[in-house]
UniProtKB/TrEMBL annotation:
InterPro entries: DHS-like_NAD/FAD-binding_dom (IPR029035), NAD-dep_sirtuin_deacylases (IPR050134), Sirtuin (IPR003000), Sirtuin_cat_small_dom_sf (IPR026591), Sirtuin_class_U (IPR028628), Ssirtuin_cat_dom (IPR026590). It comes from Parablautia intestinalis. One of its GO terms (cellular component) is cytoplasm. This is NAD-dependent protein deacetylase. Its cofactor is Zn(2+). Its main location: cytoplasm. The gene is cobB. It is an enzyme of class 2 (transferase). The keyword Nucleotide-binding does not apply. Zn(2+) binds at residues 128, 131, 149, 152. NAD-dependent protein deacetylase which modulates the activities of several enzymes which are inactive in their acetylated form.
Length: 238
């Protein structure tokens, strides 16, 4: 029995899956990954992306922040791929309890997933820092320079977790709770190096830890099943 067949067997035998996903789930929808060879880190900017996407940089150089943000982070034409669609179907069938994601693109919701815990926020939500008015991603994309509130003139900040900012406590607690109660934990499209998100794996108590990724991860040795390859193709074959 090959790895995909083993995965299929595990999924057929449970109604309590939690999925934890990283950038690799989105790259197959054409959204660039930060750490891949052709990812965002090799683009031509005056500063590395880790610097640009920090809270300090956002405050000090908002023009440069938003130039990068609009250019590289707002991939509004992206569509869900086979992995997003399969996860949404499992939820509809009652097999999947939650999707926990490090991605900020909203593609899980676009695919039909209802219970999505966004550890790093979402580019689809933006708020005026002064009056709290909500703005969508299109508003941000088409704003001239630094987006400003059309009511009070305050700065509009994306609801994404920048470097130096903490994760949302409730989202983190909910993620831990789902992972602790999961029968099957599938981790896909992440190299498991970004903390605190990568540390969530340690809360899993079960014996069906599945890692799906194109390349080996730091935690392959701890997994009960490792499936290497494109997550879209693997999920599409299930």
């Amino acid at each position: 029995m090959n790895q995909v067949e083993k995965l299929k067997e595990i999924i057929e035998g449970t109604d309590n899956i939690v999925f934890f996903g990283g950038a690799g789930v989105s790259t197959e929808s054409g959204i660039p990954d930060f750490r891949s060879v052709d990812g965002l880190y090799n683009q031509k900017y005056d500063y590395p992306p880790e610097t640009i996407l920090s809270h300090t940089f956002y405050r000090r150089k908002p023009d440069e922040f938003f130039r990068f943000y609009k250019d590289k982070m707002l991939c509004l034409g992206a569509k869900p791929n086979a992995a997003h669609l399969k996860l949404a179907r499992w939820e509809q069938e009652g097999k999947l309890k939650a999707v926990i994601t490090q991605n900020i693109d909203g593609l899980h919701q676009a695919a039909g997933s209802k219970r999505v815990l966004e550890l790093h926020g979402s580019v689809l939500r933006n708020y005026c820092e002064r009056c709290g008015k909500f703005f969508d991603a299109e508003y941000m994309l088409h704003a001239d320079g630094v987006p400003k509130c059309d009511e009070c003139g305050g700065a509009v900040k994306p609801d994404v977790v920048l470097y130096e900012e903490g994760l949302n406590d409730k989202t983190l607690r909910d993620a831990i709770s789902y992972i602790q109660k999961a029968d099957v934990l599938i981790i896909g499209g992440t190299s498991l190096v970004v903390y605190p998100a990568a540390g969530l794996i340690d809360y899993y108590n079960g014996n069906k830890l599945i890692l799906v990724n194109k390349t080996p991860t730091a935690r392959d040795g701890a997994a009960d099943l490792v499936v290497q390859g494109s997550i879209g193709e693997i999920f599409g074959a299930l």
